[in-house]
Amino acid sequence: MNLALFDFDGTLTSKDSLGEFLKYSVSRSKYIINIIKFIPYFIMWQTKIMPNNITKEKLFDIFFKGIDEEKFKTIAQDYALNKLDSIVLKERLTILQKHQQNGDRVIIVSASMKCWLEPWCKKHKLELIATELEFVNSKFTSKFSTPNCHGKEKVNRIKQHLNIKDYEIIYAYGDSSGDTQMLALGYYATKY
After folding, report:
1. Could you tell me the maximum CA-CA distance found in the chain, to the nearest angstrom?
2. Fewer C-beta neighbours within 10 Å, C or N terminus of the chain?
3. pTM of structure
């Protein structure tokens, strides 16, 4: 059996699923206010004062701190099943489906959140490795319960999930610097 590893955002999609999820989950006015609140953190991330994972947690804190777990998961599932397909690139999905038809093990490996990628992956019969949010007493803590699945963490999570030596050929697909280490695993690596 061969293995095919796909990044999600920018690799399979025309837009970032996180950005689209933020727009989907709150009113337009709340979205604008929250983005303005996030600007200082975004600047700190861009100037490398604040690391990617902390910046991302700050974004989720601004938008969702204290949200009820069931409410959040309902929004995420609705988004996954009603919106995600509209940003998926058909020609890239066709490549993924060819791997499935060939009997390859296909896994989405994403820094985006499991809560909205999982329903989409189940619909398309795909395995998923992604970042997970932390809920305590059914409330969102504004923290991640797993490390942000980005950069070298993608490789760490893949190696926790499976034994790479079990696969004769590994295909890897990505589009950004956050995929570099995962792409290095592939005998056939495609960077979009």
Report:
1. 51
2. N
3. 0.94
